[in-house]
């Protein structure tokens, strides 16, 4: 089994956050549509500027043509392990509202918020996610038939965790390397 990489935090944060990490080793166990849609619904409840909800999610389960289409958009470095995910989800950002053509300057932030909600919901269900920016955005837009006002933001690999031993290098070492973050003193400052 892959290690559960619990974050060693300076301050006490909730276990769901401490336990979340991005594995590359996924088990053969399948996900069903209801499980994926539960995770996606969690994303739909994220906050967004003016409650615009500038996101969509397009998913495919392993073993389907849709999965193969999303998989084909991935960068070569993600293919060796992402092919074993139980599902792939394309997160889509809506740059401007279709009816008014008003630009949403916060859509990327809001899609990120929705994605974080999905990661935590998945973990609560013992489903892990690995977010990928390494994919061909144009190809993903074509696969998903996105209109001009929408953009593929990331692709998530979802699944149940498996042994790091089944991964080839360099992925095995990455799977086993302890998690780390910059200390709070380097990322935060108290303003008097």
Automatic annotation (TrEMBL):
<feature type="domain" description="Nitroreductase">
    <location>
        <begin position="17"/>
        <end position="60"/>
    </location>
</feature>
<dbReference type="GO" id="GO:0016491">
    <property type="term" value="F:oxidoreductase activity"/>
</dbReference>
<protein>
    <submittedName>
        <fullName>Nitroreductase</fullName>
    </submittedName>
</protein>
<dbReference type="InterPro" id="IPR000415">
    <property type="entry name" value="Nitroreductase-like"/>
</dbReference>
<keyword id="KW-0560">Oxidoreductase</keyword>
<comment type="similarity">
    <text>Belongs to the nitroreductase family.</text>
</comment>
<dbReference type="Pfam" id="PF00881">
    <property type="entry name" value="Nitroreductase"/>
</dbReference>
<dbReference type="InterPro" id="IPR029479">
    <property type="entry name" value="Nitroreductase"/>
</dbReference>
């Amino acid at each position: 089994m892959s290690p559960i990489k619990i974050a060693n935090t300076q301050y006490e944060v909730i276990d769901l956050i401490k336990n979340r990490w991005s594995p590359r080793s996924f088990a053969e166990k399948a996900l069903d549509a209801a499980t994926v849609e539960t995770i996606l619904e969690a994303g739909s409840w994220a906050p967004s500027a003016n409650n615009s909800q500038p996101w969509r999610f397009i998913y495919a389960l392993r073993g389907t043509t849709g999965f193969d289409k999303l998989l084909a958009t991935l960068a070569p470095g993600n293919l060796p392990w992402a092919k074993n995910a139980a599902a792939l989800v394309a997160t889509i950002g809506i740059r401007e509202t279709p009816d008014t053509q008003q630009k949403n300057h916060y859509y990327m932030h809001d899609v990120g918020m929705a994605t974080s909600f999905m990661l935590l919901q998945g973990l609560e269900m013992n489903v892990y996610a690995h977010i990928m920016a390494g994919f061909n955005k144009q190809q993903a837009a074509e696969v998903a038939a996105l209109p001009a006002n929408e953009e593929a933001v990331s692709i998530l690999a979802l699944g149940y965790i498996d042994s790091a031993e089944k991964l080839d290098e360099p992925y095995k070492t990455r799977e086993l390397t302890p998690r780390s973050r910059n200390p709070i003193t380097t990322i935060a400052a108290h303003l008097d």
